[in-house]
Design brief:
Strand order of the largest sheet: 7-6-8-9-13-14-5-15
Largest sheet: 8 strands, mixed
Structural class: alpha+beta
Shape: globular
Radius of gyration: 20 Å
Order of helices and strands: HEEHHEEEHHEEHHEHEHEEEHEHEHEHH
Distance between the termini: 40 Å
Number of helices: 14
Helix content: 25-40%
């Protein structure tokens, strides 16, 4: 029996707590839907082989094939994937920085790509103002990109939005994606190379976001209300380095939650994720970490350029005075790699503990060279 169908997706992903909520399986058929931040199967599909299974980032994945398909081999690193360049970056426009996260790099690059007609539309994450629920939406101008600016910390099914909202009228599309979403889109690209009818050919840019974990919106909302924080009053969220808190900015001022209390709201699937820097994106962006006062540091991003397409966009942004970049020191890159390695090791430990066997790595292949590297590290601990 073919195991690449909806039945096995339910058994080995949804029922095992591995679903990331990316939405890759939603919008492909009427039987898969997103309810709040959960994936729900409404009816059993009888297809022997389904795209819902093929595109899921938590089904068996040939990561080596994806790397070979997307990236040049000489830039690959075992810790954070392909690296053509690594910078600290910041949007030049103070107006963009005022409403976006940290250095506003993502918003600045999206707006440039739209203005230069490199893409016609972008899939971004929007938050329901009356709750903690987030959803993917389509933006084709500054109003849309700036409305969605800022980190949400709850899952947004961006790939579902790609499946549902991208039509011929949307033209060429860019997607802002977390690591699991970028992996799903990469699997769709690999499949799309063999399927000319797949709308994946409209996907021209993936901007990845660093991600350590996302929060269950239901548990997070409950915690907020227990702390007398009204979800619709939230204007921004951040994690200041070294303070072990989730800092929440509201219309009534800044409030903070100890990370120890927030830990219980983390989605189960995040404990089995090996990727902290969106390794399958064209560009990856995260919070900057370097010596200096936090108020100064927080105005910058880390920026990893992974593909030639990503390099062309960043170079264009610098040449047009949209983005300021500076070479990041080797020490910063080494710190990022060390943090990424820790996530990979912890994820592998959790996977092995869940499966009960080092021979069963759930969605990972034990013969993948980069997976084998960390299995070797674990065996020496």
């Amino acid at each position: 029996m073919n195991k690449n169908n909806q039945k096995f997706l339910k058994k080995y992903v949804l029922e095992e707590g591995l679903c990331t909520g990316c939405g890759a399986c939603v919008g492909l058929c009427p039987y898969q839907v997103i309810y709040h931040d959960r994936t729900v199967q409404l009816h059993q599909c009888d297809l022997e082989e389904g795209k819902c299974y093929a595109f899921c980032p938590r089904t068996a994945t040939d990561l080596a094939a994806l790397r070979a398909f997307l990236f040049e081999p000489d830039g690959l690193t075992p810790e954070i994937g392909a690296v053509k360049a690594y910078y600290f970056s910041q949007a030049i426009d103070p107006g963009v920085r005022a409403i976006a996260q940290h250095g506003a790099t993502v918003t600045a690059l999206l707006e440039l790509a739209l203005a230069e007609h490199l893409i016609d539309s972008a899939i971004v994450s929007s938050r329901d103002q009356e709750s903690a629920w987030a959803e993917g939406s389509i933006a084709n101008n500054k109003i849309g990109t700036r409305k969605s600016a800022g980190s949400k910390f709850t899952v947004s099914p961006a790939v579902a939005a790609f499946n549902q909202l991208v039509t011929k009228d949307a033209g060429n599309v860019g997607v802002v994606a977390t690591p699991c979403q970028a992996l799903a889109l990469a699997k769709m690209k690999l499949n799309g190379a063999k399927d000319n009818t797949n709308k994946i050919h409209q996907l021209k840019l993936v901007i990845g976001l660093y991600c350590g974990w996302t929060l269950s919106a239901e548990k997070y909302t409950k915690l907020l209300l227990e702390k007398n924080i009204i979800p619709e009053s939230i204007t921004g969220i951040d994690i200041p380095p070294g303070r072990n808190i989730l800092e929440i900015y509201t219309n009534d001022g800044a409030k903070s939650l100890p990370l120890d209390e927030v830990q219980g709201c983390i989605r189960e699937a995040c404990h089995y994720c090996m990727d902290s820097t969106a390794e399958f994106a064209d560009i990856s962006v995260g919070s900057a970490r370097f010596a200096g006062d936090w108020e100064k540091v927080r105005k910058w991003n880390q920026l990893i350029v992974r593909t030639e397409k990503g390099k062309e966009l960043v170079d264009l942004a610098v040449n047009k005075g949209i983005l300021k970049v500076r070479e990041a020191p080797a020490e910063s890159l080494n710190e990022l790699k060390a943090a990424a390695v820790n996530k990979k090791k912890n994820a592998l430990k959790n996977i092995i503990q869940k499966s009960g066997s080092i021979k069963n790595l759930l969605y990972l292949k034990s013969d993948d060279l980069m997976v084998k590297k960390y299995l070797g590290v674990l065996s020496r601990l």
